[in-house]
Write a structure and sequence with these properties.
The protein is an alpha/beta fold. Helix content is about 25%, strand content about 25%. The protein is globular, with a radius of gyration of 20 Å. It binds NADP nicotinamide-adenine-dinucleotide phosphate and zinc ion (2 copies).
């Protein structure tokens, strides 16, 4: 077994702290990865604090992992020591159901194995995530990170990237469409970059006046302050597609009303409490309201390769491991520009 040090939450109200645990030995199909960087997703905060009421403690968060392959099992054909690789929100699934066969492992009929706070399929209890120095993952759930990308800035692609890419592709966003992105955080800023790169006319909706300039720099053609009722009213009925990446309670009907006939709004933000939907906002113009969960392994590789070709990464602020609580506090104030990434060299050697 591999002794490992990570940072774990031990209770919903306890700050994360160093935690020693073991990883499994590198099995025949496994890749052992020395983690270099791990992005900080708002889902880490939701789960560290048990906001989705399903956290099993101790919880080592982290599912935006980039690192170098340290060792491969004898059956591993796709990776070799030294490769720059990534691991996102999933480390396994049943691989047999229709969703798995379709390359949509996130919708595995038996439930995928989450990178952390998931039930391990190797009999090791609950999975531990990327706030740690190393991880052992089956090669089928390891992604290639293009060499041309900065590995730290690429780490958020493994969740924030694929979570916005997948719905934009599924609903075929492209030229000639007016697309709204709601919330300029980790997910939202990737949504803006991707929607722009896919050729859409992009409008960012933000609650933060201080993010207007950044929104335009990141690729939005226009930025609307969502607290400005007059500005919102002008946007009614003008959108083909809206992606909502807000992490907190907010009025989604205000955005449904902005869709054209047959337009679609997709929710990726996952706040703790239910969000009321006005059925009249839907039925008046045959609008759709949908959800989307991360993305499958093949489409994650497709997204990474697209990023390699178009030189797209996240805008990041690097932090030390012991700054994680400050990062969480800033995330709660919407003060993220636009993803925190942990430099894993700052992980203590011992717990
Ligand atoms: P984040 O970096 O904290 O960004 C969230 C953004 O939402 C904020 O920057 C802010 O943008 C906006 N916001 C925050 N509070 C708000 C409020 N009260 N009203 C309106 N807007 C508010 O979070 P993230 O990592 O991007 O994650 C966003 C959400 O997606 C989280 O709930 C996370 O769990 C979820 N998520 C879902 C999936 C999935 O598969 N569906 C995957 C990953 C994450 P402005 O300052 O621009 O308003
Ligand atoms: Zn995430
Ligand atoms: Zn399956």
């Amino acid at each position: 077994m591999l002794s490992c040090v990570g940072y774990a939450a031990t209770a919903a109200d306890a700050p994360l702290k160093p935690f020693a645990f073991d990883r499994r030995d590198t099995g025949p199909d496994d890749v052992r990865i020395d983690i270099l960087y791990c992005g900080v997703c708002h889902s880490d905060l939701h789960q560290a604090r048990n906001e989705w009421q399903n956290t099993i403690y101790p919880c080592v968060p982290g599912h935006e992992i980039v690192g170098r392959v340290a060792e491969t099992g004898p059956s591993v054909t796709r990776f070799k020591a030294g490769d720059m690789v990534g691991v996102g929100c999933m480390v396994d699934s049943c691989r047999e159901c229709t969703s798995c066969r379709d390359g949509l492992e996130q919708y595995c009929e038996t439930g995928f194995v989450a990178t952390y706070n998931g039930e391990d399929r190797h009999g090791r209890g609950i999975t531990f995530g990327g706030y740690s120095r190393a991880i052992v993952v089956d090669q089928s759930f390891v992604l290639r990170v293009p060499d041309t990308l900065d590995p730290a800035a690429a780490s958020p692609l493994l969740c924030a990237g694929i979570t916005t890419w997948s719905p934009l592709r599924h609903w075929k966003v492209g030229p000639g469409q007016r697309v709204g992105i709601v919330g300029l955080g980790g997910l939202g800023h990737m949504g803006v970059k991707f929607a722009r790169a896919l050729g859409a006319e992009v409008v960012l909706f933000t609650t933060s006046p201080g993010k207007v300039t950044d929104g335009l720099r990141l690729g939005a053609h226009e930025v609307v302050l969502s607290k400005d009722a007059g500005a919102m009213a002008k946007e009614r009925g003008r959108f083909d597609f809206i992606l909502d990446a807000v992490a907190a309670e907010h009025d989604i009907n205000a955005y449904l009303d902005l869709l054209r006939r047959d337009g679609t709004m997709v929710q990726v933000g996952a706040p703790e409490q239910p969000l009321p939907v006005s059925v009249f906002s839907l039925l008046m113009k045959r609008r759709s309201f949908a959800g989307s969960l991360i993305g499958g392994i093949p489409e994650t590789q497709e997204m990474l390769d697209f990023c390699g070709r178009h030189n797209i990464t996240a805008d990041i602020e690097m932090i030390r491991m012991d700054e994680i609580e400050t990062a969480y506090a800033r995330m709660l104030r919407s003060d993220v520009k636009y993803r925190f990434v942990i430099d894993m060299a700052t992980m203590p050697q011992a717990a």
